[in-house]
Amino acid sequence: MPICFLLRRFMSVLFPYSMLRNILLVTFTMICVVVHAEEFGIARRTPAAQVQPQFSQQMLPYIVRIIAFDANGQSFGTGSSIGTYGEYGVILTNWHVVSETEGLVHVVFPSGFSSFGAKIKEDKTWDLALIVISKPPQSIPMLTIAQNPAQKGDPLWIVGFGSGSYRIADGRCVRYMALEIPKDGTAPLNEILEVSVSARKGDSGGPILNQKCELVGVLFGSDMVQNTAGSYCGRVSQFLATTLNKMTDLPERPESYFASIETGGPLHQLHESRNSVPQTIEVFQRASVSDSSGTSSGIRSFSRRYVPSASF
Asked: Is 39 exposed, middle or buried (0-12, 13-18, 19+ CB in 10 A)?
């Protein structure tokens, strides 16, 4: 029998006056609700890690807006600055962000520097792509790839530009999943990192960060409810290790390389895309996440959905 009914019978004996009895009963019930609010789903649990404004500002220079051109217009994505090679800058993003682009993409830094970019390495299975751009004139911070994978319960952050606004949002490492179960009976490769925070359209390709500001994953999709998934840092490191030969084959001057790819040059699109670059910085917590998906004609934003059907 529920405790409230037992308490009511007990109090009816001790307190014959109905008004006093009801007041005490209501007071006791309210105390129980407050104490167990999280269990009843009334109160929001303490967030995994508060997004402080200084942390948001600290991570901003590492993140870039990627604007890919295709037959249907422009598509937005996010990328991370991870290094330089000679006169080139190196950007890491998703395969699906640039997969429909035949020529060059446009990469924009929060500092205002922008450059054409060319994809030199792609991995469709793990949704990774590497882009080279003209080396920025100023010193641009570069993200470090984590050597150690995030552990279950670790606080993590996802970062991206969405379709219009910069955002860094917090969550925790939920689990690792596999793309498929091997038919030969071998152990599945649990190399998809899942984080307890929802991504927006246009965040694809952005980094998943740990407390050391290291990249522990590359965001590739969201279940559109509460979780986000991405390729974990071990898979990212393997992908980058195979790109060295691609870098050594690059011409000395980026401009000549880009001209050989894009003979016409999307100059009008470059002008339009510059007008689409976000100029303001907004910091969001999970409790106040807004979706700023692009709705303008000719603008599409990517966010690859996934179904967490296989967990190991």
From this structure: exposed
